[in-house]
Design goal:
This protein is of the alpha+beta class. It contains 6 helices and 7 strands. The strands form 2 sheets. It has a 4-stranded antiparallel beta sheet with strand order 2-1-3-4. A 3-stranded antiparallel beta sheet has the order 6-5-7. Strand 3 and strand 4 form a beta hairpin. The longest helix has 28 residues.
Length: 204
């Protein structure tokens, strides 16, 4: 017949095991991802508000504007002001502006404007600008020259499309950093496959 001490010991051991089991379940519950947590980053939708035109500024409605610090890129979620020499923007007929973090994000955005900016379309855009990588000046996106396949990484640390005002600039950059120069018309027809693969999700 087991002694009183043995019975007490077994009871304590069982209690400890039960407590450990509860602890394990508790930790597992805290660390196991929920269905929402398990969603891949590419499946997260971001709403990046536009910024309205201020008539009191005296600035023409179609003129390029400086990037606010709080502006977010609707394509990737980054803050364009933090990498200003890569920034881009589109201006709609009502004066609203949407800022983007790079020329690549601009061309991805133009493929699906309504998906990124509710109530707007590509037909509503009256002006678009990219930044001259050399000078930091705004230049009309349709008149810029772009370089694809260079060693220069964009804000997302991936391939990008640095923009320049003149073909001579683009050629000089490609000679230093590699790549080929392209026009906006070429890129509107379709992005190079290596860049198109960087597009975010397409559901919704």
């Amino acid at each position: 017949m087991p002694s009183r001490r043995a019975i007490i010991g077994l009871s304590l051991l069982g209690g400890a095991a039960a407590f450990a089991g509860l602890g394990y379940r508790s930790v597992r519950s805290a660390t196991a991802p929920t269905r929402a947590d398990a969603t891949q980053p590419g499946d997260v939708c971001l709403t990046a508000p536009t910024f309205s035109h201020d008539p009191a500024s005296g600035q023409p409605l179609r003129a390029a504007r400086e990037v606010p610090a709080e502006a977010r890129c609707p394509v990737c979620g980054m803050f364009p002001a933090r990498q200003r020499r890569w920034a881009a923007q589109v201006i709609f007929h009502n004066g609203d502006v949407q800022y983007l973090d790079s020329p690549l994000s601009l061309f991805l955005y133009l493929q699906r404007v309504p998906r990124y900016t509710a109530g707007q379309s590509a037909a509503s855009i009256v002006a678009s600008y990219v930044t001259d990588l050399d000078t930091g000046a705004w230049i009309p996106a349709e008149r810029a020259w772009y370089v694809h396949g260079s060693r220069q990484m964009g804000p997302m640390r991936t391939g990008n499309l640095p923009a320049f005002t003149t073909l001579d600039q683009a050629r000089a950059f490609a000679a230093r950093e590699g790549g080929e120069w392209l026009t906006a018309a070429h890129l509107r027809q379709g992005l190079p496959a290596s860049l198109q693969r960087l597009a975010p999700h397409t559901h919704g």
